[in-house]
Specification:
The chain contains nine helices and eight strands. By secondary structure, it is α/β, with parallel strands linked by helices. It has one domain: TIM Barrel (Alpha-Beta Barrel). Helix 3 runs parallel beside helix 4, helix 7 crosses helix 8 and helix 8 crosses helix 9. The longest helix is centred in the middle third of the chain and has 18 residues.
């Protein structure tokens, strides 16, 4: 496997926003040099769509999980379905899972229940996790220390350097995407510039979080090379160095990408 893989570690290619042109979006990503795309599920209802996309497009690999903003319509039987899906389908991680303390109308206890139960599934199956973390890094760290998993990715990381270091100690890489392209995102840009290079992976979160040059538009995985270029500029290195390092990092924390 080549060492210069450009990997989008977080892209919801199954989303309805791509229903009209999914094939051309995937082709544009390949043309832009994106070699692999991790497609995380968000609820039981889209497990099948994620599996289908990953069968239809050879560069796509799946993760399955219940997103904290979807737990309000989850039922405990969905956890059994998740375990069965992870055992049946090829998957590189349990995700997208986590906690979200940003949305105002939420049930923290319910979020925590599904997060903890999914961490247990990841531990049992020896799979990494893809974390959704918004204003919840400390409670997430608490559960990660309590229920040991094999690391993974903290998607769209937006915490402090101290919190970043704690996640790194637990075997996680930190996902950087469109937000890092905004000059006003000073803290995220500082992290992207100063974290150890082996801490960083690339992502788009398409169709969400478009980069600065595409504000208000649908995001897509073919934007990843320019995001890599932005990080390269911040670190004063060649873009190919960023692509090579982030590709290695993604394969380290998501070993299933190697298969």
């Amino acid at each position: 496997m080549p060492n210069d893989l450009l990997i989008d570690t977080h892209c919801h290619l199954d989303a309805a926003e791509f229903d009209g042109d999914r094939e051309s979006v995937a082709a544009a990503a390949v043309a832009a040099g994106v070699t692999l795309i991790v497609v995380p599920a968000v609820e039981r209802a889209n497990f099948g769509a994620v599996a289908s996309v990953c069968r239809d497009f050879p560069g796509c690999v799946a993760a399955y999980g219940i997103h904290p903003m979807y737990v309000e319509r989850a039922v405990p039987a969905d956890l059994d379905a998740l375990r069965e899906t992870l055992e049946r389908e090829s998957a590189v991680a349990v995700g997208e899972i986590g906690l979200d303390r940003f949305v105002e109308l939420r049930d923290d206890a319910n979020q925590e229940f599904y997060f903890v139960e999914q961490l247990k599934i990841a531990r049992d199956l020896d799979l990494p996790v893809i974390l959704h973390v918004r204003r919840a890094i400390d409670p997430i760290l608490k559960q990660l220390r309590r229920i040991g998993v094999r690391g993974g990715i903290a998607h769209a990381f937006n915490g402090s350097r101290q919190q970043a270091d704690e996640l790194l100690k637990l075997g996680f890489a930190l996902g950087f995407g469109g937000t890092v392209t905004f000059p006003r995102a000073a803290r995220i840009r500082e992290l992207a510039a100063t974290l150890p290079l082996d801490a960083i992976v690339l992502e788009t979160d398409a169709p969400d979080i478009p980069p600065a040059w595409n504000v208000g538009a649908r995001n897509s995985p073919d934007q990843l090379p320019r995001i890599a270029g932005e990080i390269a500029t911040l670190r004063s290195v060649a873009v190919m160095d960023i692509i090579a390092a982030t590709g290695r990092n993604a394969r380290r924390v998501l070993p299933g990408l190697l298969h």
